[in-house]
Amino acid sequence: MHEDRRPFDRFTIGYLAEFIPPLDTIDADARICDAIEIMCRKNYSQLPIVQKNNDGSETCVGVVTMLSFLQGFSLQYDKGNEEMRKIMESNVVTFKVQDEPAFAQPGDEILEYVDLLSKEDFVLVGSRSKCASIITNSDVVSFFKNKTEVFLLLREIETSLRYIISKCLAGDKLKETLDSLASSRKERKITAPLRDVADLFQDELRAMINKNWNEFQKCFKDKEKIGNQLEYVRDLRNKVFHFRSQITGSELTHIKMLRNNFAKIAENVSGGE
How far is 185 from 91, CA to CA, in rounded Å? Predict the structure, then answer.
């Protein structure tokens, strides 16, 4: 069980690392065959190398990868190492992956192959008679980064705003404002419940800040500026969620800046909790 986090906490590498198995390493004095044995047995493509220090600690001195091993292998071949030459001149089929490769079709859903890719690192596209391309783990990671990054940024902005509101408005003032917005929903025949800050729509977040500017002025300073920023977030959110449009590089850079600004304000409001 992981400890609770404030709602504006970001999906950092540290957060992800908590769900990754403990790190395996190999001693700098170990043989390369030992490293390869570990990498093959555990299906690793890379293995950190550590050196023992006199005080019992360890220092990471590098990483051995399958690619670096093959590059070293090739270098020995180029230098005329006869044993390496025998191996390097063997038929390529000798070194093929033991299991039969999986083939995907262009129309298949990427998510169908995530589990396979986590084990095999790649999937071929097409068929035995016509292999069109190869999809690797890194291809999928890049794809999902491009598709999901803006969604995560918008979510972090909204969760930061919710946290700021919950800190700046307290007790009766918060309840009064929520009740007012709940009445507005009823008038508009919106049935979604409004029990606390977590239930607020994006436009309601802006309305709550505008209606209670005196409580938020110490956080946001400039009412017009924050209003423009929230409108920008709203418009970009609509573009992504409702119109399914791609955002530009400048829009992504801008939304990252806004995410950082709102996260910083939320941190300041938290008072180091």
Answer: 72
How many structural domains compose the chain? Answer: 2
Check if the beta carbon of residue 194 is closer than 8 Å to that of residue 178. yes
pTM for this entry: 0.70
pLDDT of residue 47: 92
Give the helix ranges, DSSP H, for the chain: 13-17, 32-41, 66-78, 82-88, 114-120, 137-168, 171-187, 202-211, 213-220, 223-241, 249-270
Is residue 148 a contact partner of residue 110, using CB atoms and an 8 Å limit?
Answer: no
**pLDDT of res. 10:** 62
**CATH number of the CATH domain containing 84:** 3.10.580
| Angle (CA) 77 124 38, round 5° | 50
Same domain, 148 and 246: yes
User: Token pair for residue 113?
Assistant: 């192959």
Which residues make beta-bridge pairs with 128? none
Q: Tell me the two tokens of residue 122.
A: 């790649």
- Kindly calculate the radius of gyration of the chain based on its CA atoms and give it in whole angstroms: 27
d(Cα 236, Cα 245) in Å, to the nearest integer?
9
Answer for the pair 154, 11: CB distance below 8 angstroms, yes or no. Answer: no
Q: Which residue has the tokens 């399958």?
A: 66
Listed residue (215, 173, 219, 180) closest to 200, CA to CA = 180
What whole-number distance in Å separates Cα of residue 102 and Cα of residue 112? Answer: 12
- pLDDT 10s digits, 61-80: 999 998 899 999 899 889 88
Q: Which helix (H) or strand (E) holds 50?
A: strand 46-52
Q: Residue 230: inside a domain, yes or no?
A: yes
Select the more confidently predicted residue: 57 or 4.
57
Residue 246 banded pLDDT, cuts 50, 70, 90: confident
